[in-house]
Amino acid sequence: MDFRDSPAEAEFRARLRPWLAANNPGLPSSSTDDEYWARQAEWHTALYDAGFFGLSWPTRYGGHDLPTVFDVILDEELAAAGAPPRPSLGYLVQGISRHGSDAIKDRFLPGLISGQERWCQGFSEPDAGSDLAALRTTGTIDGDEYVINGHKIWTSYSDVADWCFLLARTEPDVAKHKGLSAFAVPMHQPGIEQRPLRMINGITTEFGQVLFDGARVPAQNMIGAPGEGWRVAMTIVSHEREPGELGYVARYAKTVKGLEKTVRADPGAFSTEQRDAVAWAHVQVEMLRRHVCRRLSERLDGVEHGPGGSIDKLLMTWVEQTVGAAALAVSGSRSVLDADDEPLKVYLYSRAQSVMGGTSQIQKNIIATRILKLG
Amino acid sequence: MDTRDTAEQAELRRAARQLARELGPSTVGALDDATRHARLVAAVRDAGWLELRDDTGDGSPLASGVEAAIVADALGASVADAAYTGPLMAADLLRRAGVERADHAVVAFSGALVDAAVVDGARTAEAIYAIDCSAEQPDSAYAIVAEGAEYRLARLRLADTSNGAAPQTDLTRTVRGIAPGAPVDDVPGQRRLLTTDDLAHWSALGLALTSADLVGVMRGILDVTVAYAAERQQYGVAIGSFQAVQHLLAEAWCLMDGSQSIALYASWAVDTLEPDEARAAGRVAKAYCARAARQVCETAIQVHGGIGNTWECIAHVYLRRALLSSHWFGDDGDQLRGLQHERLGAVDGLS
Questions:
Q1: Is A338 helix (H, G, I), strand (E, B) or coil?
Q2: Which of A281, B192, B226, B318 is the most exposed place for a label (fewest CB within 10 A)?
């Protein structure tokens, strides 16, 4: 058992550190203003161009074929430098890699990984949230194309996306989990209308709804086989539940570092409760860092992604919401005197973590029935 | 980085869990089974686990914090009523001071149970406590005496003092109260004075072992409770089929799993990181594990319902053990204060 770097890991860290010191763009730690996502795109390109993005993905598609532990090192160094987190694309890369044909992978992975082409994920609908398989968006074959009609909601980055990883019902007459297929749908076309959705922290650019009215997608853009959509979706959500995949540890650590700096500047101005809240947030983030190391190490034994991802998702949610609560605590009365207060926005943003990627209640159902075997 | 057990660590983990399961008290009644208890104590001794922190000859311990924590975790999971962490912490302190190991040695703690008792004078001035004493009652306990910026060991004669015989909260480990006035003797043959770095590293081990014990306690009580929820019927079905109960147990399971990750890191840090870093890792682990264990044990009692509130249900044996492991070397509040002091700057009257 060793948490230390191997020689290759240490060499990578030594190469990364000076680059970060010179290139940290100093963005806020989460989307607390409408400029955030535009600047996050520049950060993606900068990381990619310097050879520090897509570390564990195949070289053929623009990655570096390194073990996943290198992603953890990247996250640690991003956190230590107070730099923005790496873009969270792992779940889309996994979905395409595991289910897409070679032609699909060759066509879409390079642009996704390099950031040249941007993606959103069209899963949830107004009447299909936790009950995802109840979705009603249809994909109807018409020659060598599918015609898409329906309404997707809570779609992150839909305003800037070039492609939508869409789940649609292509076979209406079979059981609800079996009639779904996944597609790479081009977003820039007349049959698609994107409407921003304002989040509770006031942000209007991250979240959207997407209306499909006769949108068209080539049949060859199907990811996986017809009717394989549910399996594709489960691959994606299981990866979307993993803190190691998402790189959020760096984001949380950056926020806590900021809070510690605020308190350190004038320790006497903060109450015991405020100081406790910051220290507890530090404890939680450290727990998640080590938890990610442990999980990735277990994977060296070939342990597959499974219901354990739900444990990780719940832990990650508690960490994010503890950090959000600490931000609110440190801000004190400023949070109610100024709606633009950044800690207030961090706190409000943190409430989404127990819903996105499967609610905490769904995760607990999965843990209880599939890990504890209760039911 | 590779945080998996080595082959030897995996084997130790397997053996320790099996031994603790076989000889630990699986019911409250079994706590009174003297034959079982004697077999457990002998087995822990014969396995060589009490020597894990003894001197190899060059000042380093026989085994790292990781191996020591693997055993602590296994004993906690079966609420094993054999002294382990107490003797290990004494051996570790004696090794750092270059003093020959002593059988049944134990360290005295100040009343808050956070630090080793610091004595000043020929007799002790305050009540102090020896935690996790061996079955063979020790006649002495070790404390420390300031000498400039360093410390030497002192031995307190217990036989000469009235033994504070308060009823034991933890039913699985013995705490001995040492009334004020215990004679303080020199320890012959101390080859090194203890530095603040030594004490930081020693605390790091204490924090790692009590955290590992708490992880074991959580896993043990959850095993018992999940089995109970699957078996206990109300409204004609197992109570574990109700989401309200499932969600309580799922949360508890996550707390246990997260605790395991952070406790593992703390145990690795003991002999690998610099003293302050190792102690900070221990503080983080202990803060998390202490809070988690409290919630997990309370959840377990709730899921056991009325039965869980009776003496016969083993759940309170786990809770009681968790309470002592939480306070020993400092509970979550103590650790948060310590982390604040290091990370947020000192505030008069607050830190």
A1: coil
A2: B192
Residue that is written with structure tokens 């390194």 in the block:
A66
Which of left, alpha, beta for B114 (phi over 0: left; psi -120 to 50: alpha)? alpha
Using a CB-CB distance cutoff of 8 angstroms, which residues of chain A are in contact with residue B1?
2-6, 9, 69, 72-73, 293, 296-297
ipTM value, please give it: 0.95
At residue A297, the pLDDT reads 87
Q: Residues B212, B263: contact at Cβ < 8 Å?
A: yes
Range(s) of the domain holding residue A57: 7-96
Q: Answer for the pair B205, B68: CB distance below 8 angstroms, yes or no.
A: yes
- Which chain A residue has the Cα nearest residue B340? A279
Min Cα–Cα distance to chain B from A368, Å: 5
**Residue whose C-alpha is closest to residue B106's, from B137, B61, B64:** B137
Round to whole Å and give the CA distance between A233 and A183.
11
In a domain, A101, yes or no: no
User: In this predicted model, what pLDDT tens digit does every residue of B140-167 receive, in sequence order?
Assistant: 899 999 999 999 999 998 765 545 567 8
User: Which residues of A are the active-site residues?
Assistant: 240
Contact with chain B for residue A273, Cβ under 8 A: no
Which amino acid, residue B143?
Answer: A
Cβ within 8 Å, pair B344-A300: no
CATH code of the domain covering residue A153: 2.40.110.10
Cα separation, A74 vs A85, whole angstroms: 9
Tell me how far apart the alpha carbons of residues A48 and A60 are, in angstroms, rounded to a whole number: 14
CA–CA separation, B288 and B210 (whole Å): 12
List of chain B residues with pLDDT < 50: 162, 350-351
Say how far apart CA A4 and CA B55 lie, in whole Å. 25
Cβ distance B250 to A363 less than 8 Å, yes or no, reads yes
Q: Confirm or reject contact between A7 and chain B (CB < 8 A).
A: no
* Nearest CA distance, B246 vs chain A (angstrom): 5
Which of B329, B279, B285, B341 lies closest to A275, judged by CA? B341
Total structural domains within chain A: 3
B288 to chain A: closest CA residue: A283
- The Cα–Cα gap between B321 and B294 comes to 10
Could you give the number of structural domains in chain B? Answer: 1
Q: Are B32 and B48 in contact (CB under 8 A)?
A: no
Q: What is the extent of the structural domain holding B234?
A: 196-343
A67 and A152 inside one domain? no
A179 part of a folded domain: yes
What number is the average pLDDT over the span A249-264?
Answer: 92
In a domain? residue B306: yes
Which of A73, A275, A294 lies at the smallest CB-CB distance from B340?
A275
| pLDDT tens, residue by residue, A29-61 | 565 566 777 788 889 999 999 999 999 999 999
Residue A103 has pLDDT above 80, yes or no: yes
